[in-house]
Amino acid sequence: MRKTLFVTLLFSVAMQGQALLQTVNSGSVIAASSAVSVGEIVVIPENQIQSQSGIIGILTESVLEVKEYQVYADITVYPNPTTSGIYFKSGNPLVGEKVSVYAQSGQKLLSAILNTDYQLDLSSLSSGVYLIQSENKKFKSFKIVKH
């Protein structure tokens, strides 16, 4: 009789301990895919024995400066497709503008600075499709086909 009473008493204490643990936790236990709100108290289990708790807050960062580029919308590139080179036509001056030629894989193949005739020599490139881009974003990118 004493053994049965002792086992029953021990089982009862263990049950109350778990119930007490659930009522102490006023926050929520976070799983790997859980979402929490700002200001919510959370408990993050480190393992089966220990846990950490805290309050979720907001971290705000300000962007100090965003450099704005003046983009020329009136630029035309011709001839397209081409066999040797292309010309740029614009109402805005492009002398000294640095342009780059990229392969479709994203590899930079050549860079050049536009002179007064606004010509970009592509004769060293093999046949294919290329992307022409301004280094300082003065104009949008152009896709050029070279035969």
Automatic annotation (TrEMBL):
Q: Keyword DNA-binding: yes or no?
A: no
Q: Which residues form a coiled coil?
A: none
InterPro entries assigned to the protein according to its UniProt record, in alphabetical order: Secre_tail
Keyword Glycoprotein part of the UniProt annotation: no
The alphabetized UniProt keywords are: Signal
Top-level taxon of the source organism = Bacteria
Q: Which Pfam families match?
A: Por_Secre_tail (PF18962)
**The Secretion system C-terminal sorting domain, residue ranges:** 77-141
Q: Which residues form the signal peptide?
A: 1-19
Tell me what this protein is called. Answer: T9SS type A sorting domain-containing protein
Q: Which organism is it from?
A: Flavobacterium silvaticum
